[in-house]
């Protein structure tokens, strides 16, 4: 109506909803009888016209509505067309697509192609395609159900699109965009791979094996997964390493027990190591976004001279620990993965290895403690880095929300972190028992070799008098060794106390988790990170060692700060000297890292395309990138669809 009133200079021009329904009905009838190419006058012809159309609406009224019918607001059209060539009909078009998706579930096969809708009207995105019969028209990319020919997604070709990533082929981008509503929705997921204990009819438990489990009828698109005495056929056992005969006999593919151990190690740990690697990437991405933002964003300071956030000591203290963690975690995971793959390769190849069983147990303990530490720290880092970006961190285009949503499940899958910590604790307590009994500690990788000197280590106390003596490997390593020895002793004492009360081993372990078992495995994982990192740093190029050493030292101090209560509780330190010097050393380390931290995150960060954050682009143009993103977001220049819902109602 706005268009007609403006063109006709008639504020009384009006169209009822009944007339609009009738107009749409005529269009439907026109298509149903195959008259879409006929002249309009023919449809209302006295002799040859369609009686239903003539009874529905007069020809002149139909022409009038068609002339003035618009799907946007004329007052804001000019501004919106500068940003979106499709602005005049984008709202109704995308609403139509949304309704099409809501009202129809496509079959298993979806086809994608382009279609030219013939038209010679004046339009900003009219195409001329010589090979098409009609030559001129508007081109749409469309996704259609193969069997029903039902449209499930479409968008127009408007020329160069700023949203298409640089370097990505147009065809790939079109397919991904059209299939967005159906990607990661489990449409093609009919089976899952899970690990379970294999128990043969003779009641022998053969340990963890992989099974292919059907989770959906292939002909059912929507489903729930509930396992309730669900029978898995024998044929669904993944039998690369072992199989079960039809009569229930277990057959191993390996005659050498060491190769069976290697296969078990691969099954148990491969997925968890993958999560550790993923956690490193998530942590590095979050730290890169926050540090780049802090280096560019200016707030407060002297008049006409605002200071970058990165210059504030508080901001450094909030972020630099996560930057250091991103570096040392990555070094640790790369180093540990090489050791793990080397052992698996030798085991599966049948090569003789001394203490293979002990090595497998130690690697399992390392993975079971490291996966919780890395995934928890990455989750904490995403939250802290988001907060460090202020209100901008909440933006969808900042990518913190997606980073957190994608990472958060890792703390519970492939073994819940708290349960995995208990498995690592079991191995540590066994080594502590061996050391207490005077037997050799079973540590082929040497991660707890210091337990042989447990009595001497526990007699050590804090005697440092300045921060310089804290910022070195020896102090951090010896402090962690003392902490681990003391936690092992306290955890074992707590466990024995619960057993003395008459509790079973299971319940005694359950009562020993809080403040003891959990802290023990976290401290062990932090110690692993540090010793593997330092070993790797010593092999790096001399030019890289100083900054890597500062980062490793900073991480060690930052991690020890979280254990101050335990260090005082165990008697390692008395008075306030340790806490005062430790925290002063952390702040001094912040000042030392400030000039290098942007370069460090640039080395860690993925490409801008992968990082996908307007706050963390490598070009440093924070404000320009933010403005461009906001201006080009769909609907940015329009009213929200629900704006009428918040208008105050008349009180009359």
From TrEMBL:
Cofactor(s) it depends on: FAD
Gene3D superfamilies for the chain: Butyryl-CoA Dehydrogenase, subunit A, domain 2, Butyryl-CoA Dehydrogenase, subunit A, domain 3
A molecular-function term among this protein's GO annotations: pristanoyl-CoA oxidase activity
Sorted UniProt keywords: FAD, Fatty acid metabolism, Flavoprotein, Lipid metabolism, Oxidoreductase, Peroxisome
Keyword Oxidoreductase: yes
Occurrences of domain Acyl-CoA oxidase C-terminal (ranges): 475-647
Annotated SUPFAM superfamilies: Acyl-CoA dehydrogenase C-terminal domain-like, Acyl-CoA dehydrogenase NM domain-like
Major site of localization recorded for this protein: other
Stored InterPro entries: ACOX_C_alpha1, Acyl-CoA_Oxase/DH_mid-dom_sf, Acyl-CoA_oxidase, Acyl-CoA_oxidase_C, AcylCo_DH-like_C, AcylCoA_DH/oxidase_NM_dom_sf, PGBD
Ranges for domain Acyl-CoA oxidase C-alpha1: 268-429
GO cellular component terms attached to this protein's record: peroxisome
Family of the protein in this entry: Belongs to the acyl-CoA oxidase family.
Protein name: Peroxisomal acyl-coenzyme A oxidase 3
Biological source species: Eumeta variegata (Bagworm moth)
Lineage: Eukaryota, Metazoa, Ecdysozoa, Arthropoda, Hexapoda
Name of the gene this protein is made from: Acox3
